[in-house]
Design a protein that fits this description.
7-stranded mixed beta sheet, 27% helix, Glutaredoxin, alpha+beta, two-stranded antiparallel sheet
Length: 153
């Protein structure tokens, strides 16, 4: 079921610097939630680097980007450093946020018990309402970055 038009599920997660970040604390800005399956994988690296390279234009649209995965903050910190990321990567080790947004994959890559985020993007407006949703059919597909920018404009 789509979340578009609904209040975005609230969360407080730890970023790659182990600082708490809550969606509520970002009210007044547009927030791009970019869920990704795993740090240090090819498509995830392409995705975060695309967001990194377009961040200035997204900031001009009063938007911030948050990457979210089930990876530990230590893995996300190394991933952010390797790719010179200029936005926060959040860790969801309890899977509460990926479940709240219904973007989880259990037994990922055939590994029993390994739950990861589906590659997906949500835009939350200044009031906390989901205005855009894209969930990839499989983890190898990147989002339509032009559609994200258009939805922010």
């Amino acid at each position: 079921m789509s979340l578009v038009g609904s209040a975005a599920p609230a969360f407080t997660l730890v970023d790659h610097a182990r600082q708490k970040v809550s969606l509520e604390g970002l009210l007044g800005k547009k927030v791009v939630l970019a869920f990704y399956p795993a740090a240090f994988t090819g498509v995830c690296e392409k995705e975060v680097c695309t967001f990194r390279d377009s961040l200035a234009s997204l900031n001009e649209l009063n938007a911030v980007v948050l990457g979210i995965s089930t990876d530990a903050p230590f893995s996300n910190a190394a991933f952010a450093a390797k790719n010179n990321l200029n936005f926060q990567l959040l860790s969801d080790p309890s899977h509460s946020t990926v479940h709240a947004y219904n973007v989880y994959m259990d037994d990922f890559a055939g590994v029993p018990g390994l739950t990861v985020a589906k590659r997906s993007v949500f835009i939350v407006d200044e009031r906390g309402v989901v205005t855009y949703e894209w969930v990839g059919a499989n983890p190898g597909i990147e989002p339509d970055y032009a559609a994200i920018t258009a939805a922010l404009a």
